[in-house]
C-alpha cells in the first residue's frame, strides 16, 4: 500500500527522473512535496503534474508535510545542509514516525552523523542510506540498483521495496546502517580501477599495432572480461554506444568518479584496509577531473588522459 504523502529533495540529474517515476508509478493520487535550491528544477517538475507536485520553500517544509522523504544531493556537505540546517533543515521539523531515505553517494561519516542527530531528536523516526547505481539512463528507465543500509528483517523493508521499486529494479538490503554506502563506494573503487586497467591495457595493445576492437573481443572471452570492457570501453570506436565513441559525452562524469574514489580511499583508511592501488588510482581521476580536455566528460575519458591514441583507425589504415 503506497502512502499518499511523499517528499523529495534534490531534483538534479538523478533526482528529477527518480521523482518523475514516483509520480508516474505509484498509486493514483500520491502527492509529492518537493524542494531544491534550483527554482528552475522545481517549476519544471511542477509543470509535469501540477496537481500532484507540491513545491515547498525548504527541506523543513517537505519534512513537515510528508510521511516518507527521499533526498539525493551531490556531497556530504549538501546532505548536512538538507538535514541539519538549524532553521530550514529536515530536523527542524517534527519527524516522529517519519521515514527518511538518503540516496546521495557521500562519506559514511556524514551519514552516521545525520543518523545520530535523527536518533537524538526522535526515537520513532527512521533514517536509511540508499545510494544508487545505474546513472541518469537507469534513473529515467526506473531500473536503478539501490544499496539499502538495513537488515533483511527491517520492519520498513516491504514499504521501502515498494517505493524504491518505482525507481529501480534491484534493491539490496546490505546488512545494516551505512552498509549501503559501503557497498556503493566499494563498487565504484573497483569499477574505477577496472576502467584504468582496461584503458592502459588497450593502450599497450594499440601502441603495439593491435586493433582495439579485436583486443576488446578477446578480453570479452578471456580473463580481462568486465562490464567496462564490454559496454563502456574507454577506447573510442570500440563500443559504438559508449560515451567514448561520442567524445566522452554523457555517462558518469569524471569529477563524480574522483569524488567516489576519494571517498572509498578515505573509508579504507578509516577502517585500516590496505590499498596498493588507491593513491595511483586517485591521482589519475584527480588529474583528469581538472584537465580541460577531460573535465565534465564520462570518467572513461582516462584513456585520453593517459595519452591513448583516439585516432587508431587512421593508424590501422581505417580497419575496424
Ligand atoms: P546534480 O548536481 O545533478 O543534482 C543535485 C541536485 O541537488 C541539484 O538539483 C541541486 O540544486 C540540488 N541541491 C544541492 N544542494 C541542495 C540543498 N541544500 N537543498 C536542496 N537541493 C539541493 O547531481 P546528481 O548527478 O543528481 O547526483 C546526486 C547524487 O547521486 C550524488 O551524490 C552522485 O554521486 C550520485 N549519483 C550520481 C550518478 C550520475 O550518473 N549522475 C549516478 C549514481 C549516483
Automatic annotation (TrEMBL):
Name the reaction it catalyses: 3-hydroxy-2-methylpropanoate + NAD(+) = 2-methyl-3-oxopropanoate + NADH + H(+)
Query: What GO CC annotations are associated with the protein?
Result: mitochondrion
Q: What general EC class does the enzyme of this chain belong to?
A: oxidoreductase
One Gene Ontology MF term: NADP binding
UniProt pathway: Amino-acid degradation; L-valine degradation
Q: Where is the active site?
A: 184
Which keywords fit this entry according to its UniProt record? Branched-chain amino acid catabolism, NAD, Oxidoreductase
One GO term under biological process is: L-valine catabolic process
Domain named 6-phosphogluconate dehydrogenase NADP-binding is located at: 6-174
Q: Which residues form the 3-hydroxyisobutyrate dehydrogenase-like NAD-binding domain?
A: 180-288
Its EC number(s): 1.1.1.31
Check the record and name the PANTHER family matching this protein: 3-HYDROXYISOBUTYRATE DEHYDROGENASE-RELATED (PTHR22981), DEHYDROGENASE, PUTATIVE-RELATED (PTHR22981:SF81)
- Family as reported in the entry's similarity comment: Belongs to the HIBADH-related family. 3-hydroxyisobutyrate dehydrogenase subfamily.
Spell out the protein name for this chain.
3-hydroxyisobutyrate dehydrogenase
Amino acid at each position: 500500500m503506497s502512502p499518499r504523502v511523499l517528499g523529495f529533495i534534490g531534483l538534479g540529474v538523478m533526482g528529477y527522473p527518480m521523482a518523475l517515476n514516483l509520480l508516474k508509478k505509484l498509486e493514483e493520487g500520491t502527492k509529492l512535496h518537493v524542494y531544491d535550491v534550483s527554482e528552475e528544477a522545481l517549476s519544471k517538475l511542477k509543470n509535469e503534474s501540477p496537481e500532484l507536485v507540491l513545491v515547498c520553500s525548504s527541506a523543513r517544509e517537505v519534512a513537515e508535510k510528508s510521511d516518507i522523504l527521499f533526498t539525493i544531493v551531490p556531497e556530504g556537505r549538501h546532505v548536512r545542509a538538507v538535514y541539519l540546517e538549524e532553521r530550514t533543515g529536515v530536523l527542524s521539523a517534527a519527524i516522529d514516525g517519519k521515514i527518511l531515505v538518503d540516496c546521495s553517494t557521500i562519506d559514511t561519516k556524514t551519514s552516521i552523523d545525520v543518523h545520530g542527530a535523527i536518533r537524538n531528536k526522535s526515537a520513532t523516526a527512521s533514517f536509511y542510506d540508499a545510494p544508487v547505481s545505474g546513472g541518469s539512463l537507469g534513473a529515467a528507465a526506473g531500473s536503478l540498483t539501490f544499496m539499502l543500509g538495513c537488515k533483511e528483517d527491517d520492519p520498513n523493508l516491504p514499504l521501502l521495496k515498494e517505493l524504491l521499486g518505482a525507481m529501480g529494479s534491484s534493491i539490496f538490503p546490505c546488512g545494516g546502517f551505512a552498509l549501503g554506502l559501503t557497498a556503493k563506494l566499494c563498487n565504484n573503487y573497483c569499477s574505477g580501477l577496472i576502467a584504468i586497467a582496461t584503458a592502459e591495457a588497450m593502450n599497450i595493445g594499440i601502441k603495439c599495432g593491435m586493433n582495439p576492437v579485436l583486443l576488446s573481443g578477446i578480453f570479452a572471452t578471456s580473463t580481462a572480461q568486465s562490464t567496462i570492457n564490454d559496454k563502456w570501453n574507454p577506447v573510442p570506436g570500440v563500443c559504438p554506444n559508449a560515451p567514448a565513441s561520442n567524445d566522452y559525452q554523457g555517462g558518469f562524469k569524471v569529477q563524480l568518479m574522483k569524488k567516489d574514489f576519494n571517498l572509498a580511499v578515505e573509508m579504507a583508511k578509516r577502517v585500516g584496509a590496505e590499498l596498493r592501488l588507491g593513491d595511483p588510482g586517485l591521482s589519475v581521476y584527480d588529474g583528469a577531473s581538472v584537465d580541460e580536455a577531460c573535465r565534465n566528460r564520462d570518467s572513461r575519458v582516462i584513456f585520453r588522459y593517459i595519452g591513448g591514441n583516439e585516432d587508431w583507425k587512421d593508424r590501422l589504415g581505417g580497419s575496424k
